[in-house]
Amino acid sequence: MIFGKTKKPQKQWFLNVLLLLFALPAATQSNDVLAKSFYLKAEKNFKIKQYTYVIDNLDKVVEYLGNTNPKVEVLYVKTYLKRKDYQRTDLHLKKYFEMADEGQDDYMKMLEYVAEVKEKLEAFKKENERLEKIISGIEKGKFTDPRDGQYYPIITIKNPDNENKLTIMARDLNYEMEGSTLYSPTIDKYKYGRLYDWEAAINACPPGWHLPSDNEWKLLIELIGGKSNAGKILKSKNDWTKYRDYEVKQGANDIGFNAIGSGAKKSYGRPTPPANLNGMYLNQMATYWSSDRKYKGTQGDRYYHASTWLLHSYRNDIINQTITPIKNSYYSCRCFKD
Question: What is the DSSP letter of 303?
Answer without folding.
Answer: G
